[in-house]
Specification:
Blueprint lengths: L2 H24 L18 E2 L16 H7 L11 E2 L6 E7 L4 H19 L4 E7 L5 H14 L4 H8 L14 H9 L5 H9 L1 H17 L6 E4 L2 E4 L4 H14 L5
Helix pairs in contact: 4-5, 4-7, 4-8
Length: 254
């Protein structure tokens, strides 16, 4: 598909979703994502008009945009965040460790975004647990949270996504998760097991999932770049475009 055709396709798709969004907001919801199925490939694209998230010409963000920006946690020392607390752009990622397209994003796109934008102080990435494939997804999410309690979430993330794994095959259960934690450099494995089984992990994972559901997330991976939703493991250029536009909207020069 050539560049012009790709742009027209994305614009048509975002227009449809923008209309859905407008109707949803009339009902007092923030249903941003129109994904279907249990995980998303690279066909979904950006799911709202690029200018909807507050262009540089606007005096102030709308009430809707303020609500979306309020989802950014920007907590100092957040073990499940990468980048400066005050970065002008925040990419919130809703993902499942068993999702193959989440793994594709983790291996192919995230490293490029980290090198180009996170290292430059432009982008902050905030992870949200969104387990949708059953018990092993739930267990993996709690394990990721537990690794984060010892400052090793992203190392666990990289191990979990380091290779393609078959869903619900036992690769994200019991001893396999402990082995991943060990490979990720989690020092106190006994504490890791306690944390993984504790109510705090369950509450954290459920809280993340509820946040995504309130946005209308139904498939993974799903992303929010400041106020612009992106669905699926899109090409890196799609994320770069969204980040650059969000940066300009925030008043930051490139």
């Amino acid at each position: 598909m050539n560049t012009d055709t790709s742009k027209r396709t994305r614009k048509a798709s975002t227009l449809v979703v923008a209309l859905i969004l407008a109707a949803a907001l009339g009902l007092g919801t923030l249903s941003l994502f129109a994904g279907s199925g249990s995980d998303s490939g690279s066909g979904g694209g950006r799911t709202a008009d690029a200018d909807r998230g507050g262009s540089a010409g606007k005096d102030a963000p709308s009430a809707q945009d303020q609500a979306l920006l309020a989802l950014q946690r920007r907590a100092a020392g957040d073990p499940m965040a990468l980048g400066k607390k005050d970065a002008p752009v925040v990419l919130i990622e809703y993902s499942d460790f068993q999702c193959p397209f989440c793994g594709k994003f983790a291996r192919d796109t995230k490293p490029e975004l980290v090198e180009k934008y996170v290292a430059a102080g432009v982008l902050r990435i905030e992870w949200r647990h969104f387990p949708i494939f059953g018990d092993e997804s739930q267990a993996a999410a709690r394990a990721g949270w537990a690794a984060g309690q010892q400052g090793r979430f992203w190392e666990f993330h990289d191990v979990a996504y380091g290779e393609e794994r078959k869903k619900n095959s036992g690769e994200f259960a019991g001893d396999e998760l402990i082995a991943m934690a060990k490979e990720a450099g989690v020092r106190d494995l006994a504490r890791f097991e306690r944390d993984m089984a504790g109510t705090a992990a369950e509450e954290a994972v459920n809280g993340d999932a509820a946040e995504g559901q309130n946005l209308g997330v139904t498939s993974t991976p799903a992303f929010l770049v400041n106020t612009t939703p992106v669905l699926g493991a899109q090409p890196t250029e799609v994320f770069e475009e969204a980040i650059d536009e969000a940066r300009k909207a925030a008043g930051e020069a490139e």
